Amino acid sequence: MATMTALEPPYTRKRAGAHYVWSKELEVAYAFAVRQGLAFFLTDAPYQVAKLIGDDVTLVIYPHKTSAGHRHLRVRNENSRNKPRALELMAALDAEVPGWCTFSRHWTPSNFPRASA
């Protein structure tokens, strides 16, 4: 079972461990979680960096490497009971990040945004 650690910034090499390479992005995600009333946890689960957990929402932040070799973080829903709220939070995080930050939403056919009629 993976452990989750509630850890506030700054994310130094000693405090964040292997996730130190994402320290700036984690600070952005932490500030977002605080504004949205979500709990923020670093996790040592395989292929995960952090979790944002609310009453009916769980979002996972995980690393992704593109075919061009670029690395960035993605955010996805993890079995949230309130899926519309999860999508709303992912869109808000995607929209709020500064230009240098690397968050993007993970789209699957089941949650792909539909065009308005």
List the helices and strands and how they pair.
Blueprint: E1 4-5, H1 13-16, H2 23-36, E2 39-43, E3 50-53, E4 58-65, E5 71-77, H3 83-96, E6 104-105
Helix content: 25-40%
The side-by-side strand order for the widest beta sheet comes to: 1-2-3-4-5-6
Q: Class by helix and strand content? A: alpha+beta
The poorly predicted ranges are: none
Total DSSP E strands: 6
Q: Treating each run of at least 4 consecutive H or I residues as one helix, how many helices?
A: 3
What percent of residues are in strands? 15-25%
Span between termini: 45 Å
Q: What characteristic shape results from the CA principal axes?
A: globular
Give the rounded overall mean pLDDT. 77
What sequence of helices (H) and strands (E) makes up the elements? EHHEEEEHE
Calculate Rg over CA atoms: 14 Å
Main β-sheet description: 6 strands, mixed
Describe this structure in words.
The structure is a single chain. By secondary structure, this protein is an alpha+beta fold. The mean pLDDT is 77. The protein has a six-stranded mixed β-sheet with strand order 1-2-3-4-5-6, with helices on one face. β2 and β3 (50-53) form a beta hairpin. It contains three helices and six strands.
